[in-house]
Design a protein that fits this description.
Layout (H helix, E strand, L loop, with lengths): L1 E2 L8 H10 L6 E3 L3 E2 L6 H5 L15 E2 L1 E3 L3 H13 L4 E6 L4 H4 L11 H11 L6 E9 L4 H11 L6 E7 L10 H7 L7 E4 L5 H10 L5 E4 L1 H5 L3 H7 L5 H22 L3 H15 L7 H9 L3 H11 L2
Parallel strand pairs: 1-2, 1-10, 2-4, 3-5, 5-6, 6-7, 7-8, 8-9, 9-10
Helix pairs in contact: 1-11, 3-5, 5-6, 11-12, 12-14, 13-14
The structure holds flavin mononucleotide.
Length: about 300
């Protein structure tokens, strides 16, 4: 089981704290993307701390992800990551953000299989780490994945992760499991499924329908219910008291770690509220309690309120 990359949420601070509480939950995480925007490496290096080995010590294993379409910079960055000890890097072909996709990055590359082919043909022979890719079904049409598959099959990819939505859907609507099913016999690489697994039952239904998947990647479900991966591992729900205790102690530790590690009060306040909105869901927090935290203006008040509400 793999923790999905989520920019702003699953950086190393989260991964390390999560791993302290649930060490057996995930086999590894894919990192939020390092971007090659502007065709140089400065944006990527701004975020490189997230995958520095010393930062990831005592954390879950991680596969760094790269977003971009510049072969030369991709090779430099991927081979630098290999020197850090990473034997795999992941290429983001799924990011749906409009300004990203408009520049043929992320899901914006999916309608252009020739461009993907050119990039793979250039980078693959020169990459020291193995390459995996994370894709959607297309940017605007599911036909795109079917034109892309023969290209992907020509290269020695470690795996293909599929989030079966279109880029233009962002996160709305449903995952398209029927189209996902049609892609399975066509792809010769190990396939990882990703998308909308937020309960044990959803996981069980999915693996029953697709018993031959190589792996499953879970993103938002982990934030809505941090014990979900543990329940999936065990194959049954946790006792409600145990679930509450695990979640509250994880949230309390996350709030403490944010306070210790983030550089400014403003960043601490923003991050604490962000995680509160997501993690509070599984703690039977009332609307009123949720809002009270969001309206608080000092870090101290936010921390105090959270601590009171999760008693
Ligand atoms: C806030 C946010 C940030 C994301 N950042 C990334 C990213 O950096 N790289 C990536 O490949 N996918 C990113 N995703 C997509 C997730 O990895 C995942 O594909 C998507 O959330 C669907 O899976 P889920 O339903 O299990 O969350 C992001 C999603 C969200 C909600």
């Amino acid at each position: 089981m793999i923790l999905a990359p989520m920019q702003g949420l699953t950086e190393v601070l989260f991964r390390r704290t999560y791993h302290r509480h649930f060490p057996m939950a995930f086999d590894y995480a894919v990192s939020p993307f390092l971007s090659l925007t502007h065709g140089n490496l400065s944006d990527a290096y701004k975020k490189i701390d997230d995958v520095l080995p010393e930062e990831n010590h005592n954390s879950m294993a991680v596969v760094p992800q790269i977003l971009g379409k510049e072969p030369e910079e991709f090779i430099v960055l991927a081979n630098r990551l290999y020197e850090f000890g990473y034997t795999e890097v992941n290429w983001n072909l799924g990011c749906p953000m409009r300004k990203v996709a408009a520049k043929h990055r992320g899901s914006g590359l999916l309608p252009y299989p020739n461009e993907v082919d050119h990039i793979l043909a250039t980078i693959v022979p020169q990459l020291k780490p193995q390459l995996s890719v994370k894709v959607r079904l297309g940017l605007t049409s599911r036909d795109e994945i079917f034109r892309l598959i023969p290209i992907l099959n020509n290269y020695p990819l470690k795996s293909v992760t599929i989030h079966p939505r279109l880029g233009r859907q962002q996160y709305s609507g449903h995952v398209d499991l029927d189209t996902f099913e049609q892609t399975l016999p066509l792809i010769k690489h190990p396939i990882i499924y990703n998308g909308d697994i937020c309960t044990l039952e959803q996981y069980q239904t999915l693996v029953k329908r697709f018993p031959n998947l190589h792996d499953i990647m879970i993103g938002r479900g982990t934030l809505y219910c941090p014990t979900l991966p543990v329940e999936i591992r065990k194959g049954h729900h946790l006792d409600p008291d145990e679930k509450k205790l695990s979640t509250t102690s994880f949230l309390a530790d996350l709030v403490r770690t944010i306070d210790e590690e983030l550089p400014s009060d403003e960043a601490k306040l923003r991050k604490t509220k962000e995680y509160w909105c997501l993690l509070g869901r599984s703690l039977n927090i009332t609307e009123q309690q949720a809002r009270t935290v969001l309206h608080a203006t000092t870090l101290n008040d936010v921390q105090q309120l959270i601590s009171n509400f999760i008693q």
